[in-house]
Amino acid sequence: MWKIVALAFMPVAAVCFGALALPLAVIPGLREQFGLAASLYYGAAALSLLIALPISWLVARRMLTRRERRLLDANAGGAGMGAAARTRGSALSQG
Questions:
Q1: Nearest Cα to 61, choosing from 53, 50, 69?
Q2: How far apart are CA 21 and CA 16, in angstroms?
Q3: Contacts for 33-41 with beta carbons within 8 Å, 24 or more apart?
Q4: Domain count, the chain
Q5: Do 28 and 8 fall within a single domain?
Q6: Residue 93 half-sphere exposure, CB side, CA atoms within 13 Å?
Q7: Are residues 50 and 25 in the same domain?
Q8: How far is the C-alpha of 71 from the C-alpha of 51, rounded, in Å?
Q9: pLDDT tens digits along 5-20
Q10: Do 12 and 54 lie in a common domain?
């Protein structure tokens, strides 16, 4: 799961940064105040990295197949491999 999250993180962060930087680019007063504009862009970059982590987790979860999601849910319940094997066995018996 973490590999898929890492794969989805950078594109999600880029989209978040674009969404945060676009309003800054349209503000006319920031052209004259370079120091303020630079700090706002740095803040937008840092905020986009923070926002991108949970969003990339949701994107990675969506990228998984149905079987992989069931296995992750069974293992997350704390039952270990027994529940995953039962889930896998019941999924195979259902077709």
A1: 69
A2: 9
A3: none
A4: 2
A5: yes
A6: 6
A7: yes
A8: 27
A9: 999 999 999 999 999 9
A10: yes
Angle at 10 between CA 58 and CA 49, to 5 degrees: 80
Q: What is the rounded radius of gyration, in angstroms, for the C-alpha atoms of the chain?
A: 21
Confirm if 56 and 5 have CB atoms less than 8 A apart. Answer: yes
Shared domain for 19 and 50, answered yes or no, is yes
- Per-residue tokens: 5: 């999250």
pTM over 0.90: no
Q: Residue 44: which domain range?
A: 1-63
Are residue 1 and residue 38 in the same domain, yes or no? yes
Q: Are residues 31 and 5 in the same domain?
A: yes
40-84 confidence digits (pLDDT tens): 999 999 999 999 999 999 998 888 887 787 888 888 776 555 544
Alpha-carbon distance of 56 to 12, in angstroms, equals: 6
Whether residue 22 is found in the same domain as residue 47: yes
